[in-house]
Amino acid sequence: MKDRSGKSVMDRRGFLGASLAGSLLGFPLKKLGKAPALVRRRPPVVAVSSRNGLKAVERAYEAMTQGKRPVDAAVHGVAVVEADPRDMSVGYGGLPNADGVVELDSCVMDGPTQLAGAVGALRGIMHPAQVALKVMRRTDHVLLVGEGALRFARMHGFKEENLLTERARKRWLRWREGLSRRDDWVEPGENDLGAPGDPETGKKGKEEVEPRPTGTIHLSALDAKGRLGACTTTSGLAFKIPGRVGDSPLIGCGLYVDNDIGSAGSTGRGEAVILSNGSSSVVEQMRQGKSPTDACLEVLKRIAHFTRIPRLLDAKGRPNFQVNFYAVNKKGEFGAAAFYPAKYAVCTEEGARILDQASLYKRR
User: Fold this and answer.
1) Buried b (16+ CB within 10 A) or exposed e, 184-215
2) Residue at 199 is within a domain
3) Inter-residue contact 64 to 229 (CB < 8 Å)
4) How do 358-359 and 334-338 pair as beta strands?
5) How far is the C-alpha of 345 from the C-alpha of 61, rounded, in Å?
């Protein structure tokens, strides 16, 4: 390019390019260095569970650090509770239905695939969570129940066994004998001469029936790749009507996983959780920005608001039952809450431990 006099000149772009090249050539390469890389913090590995899951979260955490997907790690973790005869709310040793038969419910959900599997009213199989995992992976269905679930389990090689332990049988028998002042069952000693009795029936007046425990184990898991998975498994409400299915095998109720947001699950009164779609509601609260604990508390407030039947309320107008929620979000923050004070289990790099849940009410 030339000026008006005909002399060659360098245009602005060429000048800048030449200047830059010259400065680079004159600058020692070792001083240039590299641009700082963007460091993305990997999410922490977390397993959170109900109070009876201390060993379960430890096993699940270890499994995730060894590469297992969170849903598989959750099932691996709860298996230790399903096989424990001392836990009378889950698997082997679980309290039976009103007929004295153990019926199990379970579901699993995998965050990355957004698939789930579940079984309800399953008899004779110690590890229903493992059957639920098979439903998720080997069928196009989500939920199998009763005889169909049992046949599916048999097909996949699960061993049938008697799940009613002697301890659970005796507990069921006490409940059956104390069920009513007007039935034909007699408690020990009631037929003895001189035993106190009702003047009309000859039976003792029973002010309170053997309590009906509710219990379950839920486990939500997050791995270092940001994958989420969860499992809930239970023998259900003790002495329930045969065929009753609670929240545990119902996706959105007993648990829910959204791999973009977090995972949540529940234990306690299943009917209340079903009516509120409890676990999916907790996840939705986390989607709106609430912490896991605050999300759990918000759904508990909703359940309390809609509990209106007098038989379900105490003298202060509060729910006379317990509901617990447990949650972990995508960032690895975790928490739990219940109507009344309770505890939960968690495992992180700091180890497995028991923590206090937040509670809506300070005491019963």
Assistant:
1) eeeeeeeeeeeeeeeeeeebbeeeeebeeebb
2) no
3) no
4) parallel
5) 12
Residue 266 host element (H or E): strand 262-268
Q: Could you tell me if residue 19 is inside a domain? A: no
* Residue 265 burial (10 A CB sphere; 0-12, 13-18, 19+): buried
Better pLDDT: 215 or 138? 138
For tokens 């617990």, the residue is 324
Question: Is there a contact between 279 and 254 (Cβ–Cβ < 8 Å)?
Answer: yes
pLDDT digits (tens, 9 = 90+) for 305-328: 999 999 999 999 999 999 999 999
Between β-strands 115-122 and 143-145, what pairing exists: parallel, antiparallel or unpaired?
parallel
Between 292-306 and 278-287, two packed helices, what is the crossing angle to 10 degrees? 130
232 contacts 259 by C-beta, under 8 angstroms? no
Q: Which of the residues are catalytic? A: 216
**Token pair listed for 186:** 């007699």
161's CB contacts (< 8 A; 6+ apart) are 92, 124, 125, 126
How far apart CA 113 and CA 162 sit, in angstroms, is 35
Q: CATH number for the domain including 86?
A: 3.60.20.30
Question: Which one, of 23, 87, 105, lies nearest residue 50 by Cα?
Answer: 87
**319-333 b/e with 16+ CB inside 10 Å = b?**
bbbbbbbbbbbbebb
* Residue 26 belongs to some domain of the structure: no
Please give the structure tokens belonging to residue 78.
């709860």
Torsional class of 152: left (φ above 0), alpha (ψ -120 to 50), beta (otherwise) = alpha
Q: d(Cα 157, Cα 153) in Å, to the nearest integer?
A: 6
Where does 200-314 have alpha helices with state H? Answer: 270-276, 278-287, 292-306
pLDDT digits (tens, 9 = 90+) for 81-116: 999 999 999 999 999 999 999 999 999 999 999 999
Residues 328, 339, 310, 245, CA torsion sign = positive
Q: What CA–CA distance (Å, rounded) separates 332 from 292?
A: 10
Quote the number of domains for the chain: 1
Residue 339 forms part of a structural domain: yes
